[in-house]
Amino acid sequence: MGILKRQYQSTMRRAYGHALAEARQALADGGRVLDCGAGSGHTFDRLGGIAPERYTGLEWSQDLVQAGSDRGLDIVAHDLNAPLPFADGAFRCVVSLSVVEHLLKGCAYLRDCRRVLDDAGTLIVLTPNISTYFSVLQLLLGRMTSSGPHPDSAALARTHFNVLNKAAAGQLDMEDDTPSHRHLVVFSYAVLKRFLRLAGFRQVRGTGFGYYPFPMATQPLLERVDPWHCHQIVFVARP
Q: Domain limits at 102?
């Protein structure tokens, strides 16, 4: 396994672990959670044993919706480019893990996440950061960046971008009607932080994970000193 792939796997494991820990804390005193991009309920499984009646998921894949429903989970088929189908203030926590970068209307989606949160609510967003030194290096080498918008050609994607995920190259769905691998609009750390404040969040806290191509031993320090250029970013935002 290459060093970049090991760094990527470590980054994603730590970023997801941090985001889910924040979600468990936000739900500790009760309230409902909305899981955007729910799949068949993988986030529910890691939320610390909350009751199923406190969980609602949104997912575009009918097969995954059915798989989650078969488990007794409330997972609804929905396109996240459309407004969220819930009343204002319906949830204590909205979890959005590796979702916003796949949407055509990411800003409208984040603003709607604020609408469905109650006054004590928390939005948790995990997404790649476009403003990384690794992305700059890839561009200097004439390649597509692994954190930025992706091509709509599966053949090009297999050969010319996303060096961290070549193991999945045979499964890329770039040319499908609803591709799950493509990144369409990717925020930088600074821009996402600013937009969350524009969307009505008063408390916005960001954490960075992954600082390629620097050695793994140095990354925890670099992440603390400079989250603005980390590969993955987790924002916790409250009204």
A: 3-131+185-238
Q: How is residue 161 annotated by DSSP?
A: B
pLDDT digits (tens, 9 = 90+) for 163-174: 455 444 557 777
Assess if residue 172 is contained within a domain.
Answer: no
In a domain, 125, yes or no: yes
pTM higher than 0.70 for the full model? yes
* Domain CATH for 57: 3.40.50.150
Residue 124 contacts residue 234 (beta carbons within 8 Å)? yes
**Within 10 Å of residue 81's Cβ, how many Cβ atoms?**
14
Q: What is the pLDDT of residues 203-215, one digit of tens each?
A: 999 999 999 888 8
Cβ(187)–Cβ(227) below 8 Å:
no
Q: How far apart are CA 24 and CA 45, in angstroms?
A: 12
